[in-house]
Amino acid sequence: MIMGLVLEKESIQSSQDLQHETLPKWWKRDCSMLVNSFMVIQEIFPELSRMAQYFLPKMPRKIRASQNLRSISISRHTDFYNFSKGILLPWVSFDSKDARNVLLYDIDHKEAWNLIKKLPACIRPHIVMDPHKGTALGIISLRTPVLLNGHTKPVELAEACHQMMAKYLNATPLPHGSVVKNPFGMMDNVIGYLPRIGEPHTPAIWFQHDQRKCWHTIPGAQDVELKDILNHLKADYGEVCSKGTRRQFVKRGDPSTLGRNCAVFDLVRWYAYDHYETDYAALLDEAETVNQTFSDPLPHKELASIAKSISRFMQNRYNGKKDSGRHINRGIMKLEASQLDIKKKQKLSAHRTNDIKREKTEALIFQALESWNPELKLNQKNLSKISGIQLRTIQKKWNEPEVKATRSGHN
């Protein structure tokens, strides 16, 4: 399958078989070179044909590659080659100029394979080894290439996932555009010769290695989603994310441990803040997803109550960040066009800011009360922990009529 198309050898009649909307524009115009290259790999190394089906279509028509980058030869250099020639050279770059197609890792220790086997199958990197020296390259093929000149969030997420996986594998992350070991590289295309001095470091692999190939390849996940890497390695996300996201982590801390509904409440409201999600059904779906992580899930009725509370708050009172960026209210009162002096403008603006803060505080208190765990004692200290509001603020509002009336429903 190339980008969703089945490419069995006998089924390919012409380049027209690859005219598919998911192919990049440079292959849509003429994909004969892509088809021919795939056919060559399928003919010579049939065990790598499935890898080729996912790697090749994302690559540009001219690729940076080398015949002598790490060989023993007079000179070493890289150059740009036509796709059909470059794809069979020993070293190649899988990225295009403006997109990151892969995440790359330089691995030089023996424990890597044990670490990889513990990963879910959907995020395991391909391992491309020097069969004699034992040094290896890890390649994660991204299902969706990350555009470097596009939105910053996917770029930041890709870099965070790159760093998290490198930390897990105890490997060195390689930058975008790196020229690395090519699993489809052929020994006939090496200029000079590869260093094969002394006894092999990995004799079991060396003696089963196909000598026509430069490297020994252990296939991993064919196409990987960044979100799957993030979900599995999320414990390290706070260490590798951007400074802005890290500040958000510090401010939020960990979800409440006072009860399952408190934890669901925290995780779902944070999801709503990050995605500016106001829809009740979407929030209920997220609550159900979180709920599935518990060994003893909450009943649907409690999830519905939590989602409804958060949806109401997001629709009526939330003034934080939107999914498209920072939500700026500067100038919303249009005081710059009025004839008031500067001190009065500042006073009115300060009153409005104070009103917003008060409304947000009250909303968090009411959300916490509406989703209160009946097994948890309702007191000021617990309410402060669950709502995230300082204890002295809770003490001030404890006996206000609306808060008192809401509390009475839980007594």
How would you characterize this protein structure?
Pfam families: PriCT_1, Replicase. Strand 5 and strand 6 form a beta hairpin. The radius of gyration is 28 Å and the shape is elongated. It has helices at residues 25-29, 32-44, 49-55, 83-86, 112-117, 152-169, 203-208, 226-233, 237-240, 243-252, 260-275, 280-291, 300-316, 342-370, 380-387, 391-397, 401-408, and strands at residues 62-66, 79-82, 91-92, 99-107, 126-129, 136-147, 172-174, 180-181, 216-218. It has two domains: 9-231, no CATH class; 254-408. The protein is built from 17 helices and nine strands. The strands form two sheets. Strands 7-4-6-5-9 form a five-stranded antiparallel sheet, covered by helices on one side. Strands 2-1-3-8 form a four-stranded antiparallel sheet. Mean pLDDT is 79; it is low at 1-19 and 321-338. Helix 6 (152-169) crosses helix 8 and helix 14 crosses helix 15.
